Amino acid sequence: MKLLARLSLLAIIPSSLAVPTNDNQIASRDVVLNALPMLKPQRSLSRDLVNLDGLWKFSVATSANSTAQPWTGPLVTDLECPVPASYNDIFVDRAIHDHVGWVYYQRDVIVPKGWSGEQYFVRAESATHEGQIYVNDRLVAHHVGGYTPFEADVTDLVTAGQQFRLTIAVNNILTFETLPPGKVMTSALTGKRTQKYYHDFYNYAGLARSVWLYSVPKQHIQDITVVTDYKGNTGMINYNITVAKGTTRKVQIAVIDESGKTVAEGSGATGTINIPSVKLWQPGAAYLYNFRASIVDSSKKTLDTYNLATGIRTVVVKNTQFLINGKPFYFTGFGKHEDTNVRGKGHDQAYMVHDFQLLNWIGANSFRTSHYPYTEEMMEYADRRGIVVIDETPAVGLNFGLGTPGSVTFGPDLINNKTQAAHAQAIRELFHRDKNHASVVMWSIANEPASDDKGARAYFEPLAALARSLDSSRPITFANVFFATHVTDKISDLFDVLCLNRYYGWYTETGELADAEVALTTDLQGWVKKYNKPIVMTEYGADTVSGLHTVLGLPWSEEYQVAMLTMYHRVFDSIKAMAGEHVWNFADFQTSMGTGRVDGNKKGVFTRDRRPKAAAHALKERWTNLKKK
Questions:
Q1: What CATH number corresponds to the domain at position 260?
Q2: Is 258 annotated in the active site?
Q3: What pLDDT was estimated at residue 604?
Q4: 609 and 523 in a common domain
Q5: Which domain-ending residue is among 283, 310, 337?
Q6: In terms of pTM, does the model score above 0.85?
Q7: pLDDT value at residue 5
Q8: What's the helix, strand, coil split of the chain in %, to 5?
Q9: 593 & 525 share domain
Q10: Residue 5 placed within a domain
Q11: Annotated active-site residue in 539, 558, 559, 581
């Protein structure tokens, strides 16, 4: 098998931004916007970390245009907010729930005194949708984008054995230059600001993932990229390692199997490691090697070590087949959401493990990170559990025609070049963070964009090219919207796999499944005839009220959800090019208020608290017995 091309992560970073000056800030320090962070913090013999999760002081900005900066001193507030969690549903206060603009989190942090002589970083795993980190009165990091990590080197600002004040400001405002897009509306009657957005899930905000203080040696490993392959019984890890500036010592590699035995070794920052009698990472049967990279001095003393869980596997698209390790793979599973009661998008280990248990129970082998990157903990867990992932950027809502039919999406005052630049950065950050996960087999760079809009080609062609330049080892896709047919869609030829979201029988042909079956079949046959590519149905489903039953199988009932899914499966089984099915959605989830949504989207086959509807049992029966070529 031909060796896969090495990942080539482009270091295209926006120019640094000078910090605004005021009486409480030092203007000489520059802060880089959206700098790519280092590897996920971990504890080893050379590294240490302090988890900063817990209750933080919390306050909302006093006005929409406030220039006051309470992070230059202790927050005067009686509110405390848990981290990680979205703040919206925590407090019994509609003003906080509906707040538009900045909020502030603050706590005191002690730097362990044993860290003297090390390099220190503060890292936030996410801040929805814009974050600024302050150490005492100093701005040290600024990031736009709600679902990827950012960090700051604070070595010159803090001292081992001493305490500092840490503040993180978070802004939930969406514009036409952010992902996802949105706009702020101001009431002519009351002056109240509301955030309008174009995606169908609630705009939860805050620090929904962990915050860390961590240390590394002065000479340390900054980044690792691995691309795997195999030939016969020999596995191959092509690797590239970036070390900190000023590192003069040698890089050594050891590959350790799950029993703890070292099975291969190498040296140098770039190279290929061969693994005899390799055990492949397989869907449903994960096997992970520990790729251990170390910096050692001339006396063989280890200065730094980073351990990377690595699965050996290949991904190839050939005609209408999606191949993992040379074997056809058929996706079964869901589009999901990071969404639970009270926590919002806050990461919760108990829910994560339980969700994976339910995926296993129902016979699912995969999910899509709709519609944003999920936590790194979930990606790592998918690696360990053998669950396949379609990894998606936060490019959702790039389709104004969904809310107002006939509306144009792409234009100078709409989704424009600045949006495209933000989109490109989101791709870079997602690929940079998740490039080494064996579970990630395909990148999705957008969900339901207006791909039939006249401006779609100019917008997406450079982004598809960027994605391919960053990673040639995985296929790329996007989720095609219901109304962009194989005739009107302008961009599907740029991608490797056709991912289609379809709602025949729900949004059209509502309640008329015989008509919906004809429409769905005709639609899929059109895509098959035009493209010789695999088709994954990445969304299909019907809103269903748990406990609503009817002998007539009417819409909104559990019986109708089962009947509709059954019809879709009958059609899928008749289409040879089908490579998978992801039901929308795994579980009910919260959305914005509106007459079309009563306490959220009810398309889950599980309720929001993970109780199965009848459809869950029907899917279990299908997926645990499904055999695909």
A1: 2.60.40.10
A2: no
A3: 98
A4: yes
A5: 310
A6: yes
A7: 35
A8: 20, 35, 50
A9: yes
A10: no
A11: 539
